[in-house]
Every structure is written in C-alpha cells, then in structure tokens.
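## retry 2 of 3
previous attempt timed out at serialization; input unchanged, resubmitting
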Amino acid sequence: MVGARLVVPRLLHAVASQVAAAVSTARSAYRVADIGVTEERRRIAREMHDGLAQTMADALLQTDLSAMAAQAHPERVATDLRELRTVLERAMREMREFMSELRRQDPSDGTLFAALDVMGREFGRRYQIPTAVTSTGEDGQLPSAIRHAVLAIVRQALTNVRAHSQATAVGIRGEVTEQLCTVSVKDNGVGFDLAGYRAKPPAAHHLGITSMEERASLVGGRLQMESRPGGGTTVTVHIPLGREHDEDTRAAGG
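## retry succeeded, writing output
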C-alpha cells in the first residue's frame, strides 16, 4: 500500500506534465496561426503595393506621356502603344503569378523537410534563382506548431530574397536533432546594413523581421540574422526540442 501511495502521485504528476505540454503546444499553435493571418494580410498588401500597383502606375504614366506626345508627334503613337502593351503584359504576368501564389497548396501538411524541398523548388522555378535545399536528421516527430512557424519564417525570408537581395543563388538548410531544430535561408545577394535597418522607425520596416522573430519566440525559439552590404543575408531560426523546448514553450505561452 505504501508503494502504491508513492506511485500514484508520480503517475499523476507525469500525466499533468503531459497535459500541460499539450495545452502549451496548442496555445502556441493558436498564436502562431493568429500571427500568420495578420502577417499574411500584410504580405498581400506589400505584394500588391510593390508589384502590381507599381506596374499599373507605370502603365498610367506611359498612357499620359503617349497622349501628350501624340499631339506633337503623331508618328510616335504606334511605338508608344507597343511600349504600353509591354507594360500591361507585365502587369498581367504579375497578376497571374500573384493569384497562383494565393491558390497554391500549403506544403506544411507534410513533414518539415518535404515542405522545405517543395518551397525551394517552387521558388527556384518561379523566380529563376537557383535554390539548393539540404536537410539532416529526423523531422517526423516535430509538433505542427513548430513546423508551421518555421515554414512561415522561411516563406518570409524567401520573399525578402526575391524582392530585395538581387541574389543569384539561395541555400535552404534544415537540421533536426534530439535537442534542436535549426533552419536557415542564405543568399548571395547585395545584403544590407542590419544595424541601420533596426535603428529606423517601425513604419519604415518592410522585411518582416519582427514577424519572423515573433513566430520563432512563440514556439520557444529565436531568430538570428546576419547581413552586411555586399555580403548577402542569412536568416536562421533555432528552436529547442525535448524537455528544453517544453519549458521554453510553456514560458512563451504564459
């Protein structure tokens, strides 16, 4: 009887710990999803502003210039119309790519490494930037909250590569051990002054760094960025696993 009285509390404690970890993981997943919706709206707004809206503005400007030129130089109308058609064709391509991006199947339903491979291949094909994906370790047991957070961070990092880096090559590397999940996105682009960027007011921030840091923090991880002008950029997320991860995730969940 004495032995039984000692075993029961230990079992209850073990069950309670498992339940607490499950609740913490669910809470983190909910917060990651909530941030995901907000950031996705911001990303769409940025895509529309930086891409299609700018192209349409170019088309409107070309139309105005052509109208003015037609009065003084009617012979230039045909050339101006061809240039205008070129701008509008670019707008149509951007619109199709954007709609395709919105309709794409979310690769995060499978394993992390498989999803990274899909993202890398699609990125390289769509934007003609050679993208190598490598992975080591076993990723089959990663919690979904971690998987979704990591993929969202990688997606934002690739968006930055396409929009700002002028890179000619990208590398995505994933590694999972018993203690740590690490994923990095490295490009050979123009880089930037990271300290100077962080010193700017929040309204001037367009790289999604804060969002990536929040996503990493919500699953007990941290984001590391390295960049310098002319030296490319590397974005790395480190997420502890096992008991260390459970403690960090509970702390993040409050």
